Amino acid sequence: MEVVAEHINEKFAADAFTQQSGIFDDLYSANTIINYKRERVRNHVLQYLAPGSSLLELNSGTGEDATYFASKGFKVHATDISAGMQERLMQKVQKHNLQAMVTNELCSYTNLDELKNKGPYDLIFSNFAGLNCTGELDKVLASLSPLLKPKGIITLVILPGFCLWETLLVFKGKFRTAFRRFFSSKGRTAHLEGHYFKCWYYNPSYITGRLKGSFDLLSIEGLCTIVPPSYIEGFAEKHPSAYNFLKKQEDKLKGRWPWKYIGDYYIISLRKK
Fold it and tell me: Does the model's pTM come out above 0.85?
């Protein structure tokens, strides 16, 4: 029953995003900090890709990243549990004439043993905390190595168990938000446009500990550690000078302790041994 429950939670999260996907695409494209986050993640991935590399994307959503990497000449197999997300993905693929570069498959990241297109791939990628929607991240991590080529890489963007900016919201009286990552080992309820689902938080040590026998750590970067998270709405537009200063500081400190551990997200990459 626990496995079924995890699958249902992932589906609820996917459905919540699917129903708002068109709105989110429009809003996010104009959000300065979200664009900053995407650029940071993409630049992180690009440093590990050779020309002609193949990618497996988990929880690909509406295809923003899949179409980006495909436009750069990389082959992408985009997976998601939501048929609605996959439909929007393929609409973008057709719009940009990327049919030769992007394939798709309806598959949960907790059932990658059932994946039809098993690669192997040069890099496996998951962006913006899609993997935080499962309490079975250990199962997902254990399924990645067979899908990778020798020396293949995984890059994951994960919500950690502590976020500096989020905790500072206690001084604005937002106690629930400030402490929502605390004592969350059994998951915490997340809310999105009328939909509720569980979210788990994982520190980098969780991932490195479970992969240490088969992967070597390449790098960890904090994301929105010094730059405010995107849910602090309008910060970049209201305070452009402060935003540019904070962005420069984060770009300089993103890989240093403690900054790489206390952001809204972290980006972690590991290489298969």
Answer: yes
| pLDDT (tens digit per residue) in 14-45 | 555 554 555 556 556 678 999 999 999 999 99
Residue with tokens 């009286």: 173
pLDDT tens, residue by residue, 224-254? 999 999 988 889 999 999 999 999 999 999 9
Tokens of 162: 């502590």
As assigned by CATH, the class of the 2-160+203-272 domain is alpha beta
Average pLDDT over residues 201-214: 97
> How many angstroms separate the CA atoms of 152 and 214, rounded?
11
d(CA 196, CA 190): 6
Burial class (CB in 10 A: 0-12, 13-18, 19+), 30: exposed
DSSP 154-222: EEEEE--S--HHHHHGGGGT-HHHHTTTTT-TT-EEEEETTEEEEE----HHHHHHHHTTTEEEEEEEE
CA atoms within 13 A on the CB side of 191: 5
Name every residue whose Cβ is closer than 8 Å to that of residue 53 and which is 6 or more positions away in sequence. 74, 75, 122, 123
pLDDT tens, residue by residue, 169-195: 999 898 888 998 987 777 777 655 555
Q: Which of 143, 19, 169, 35 lies closest to 79 in space, CA to CA?
A: 143
- CB-CB contact of 116 with 105 (8 Å): yes
Closest CA to 236 of 64, 26, 35: 35
Domain ranges of the chain: 2-160+203-272
Strands 75-80 and 54-58 turn out to be parallel
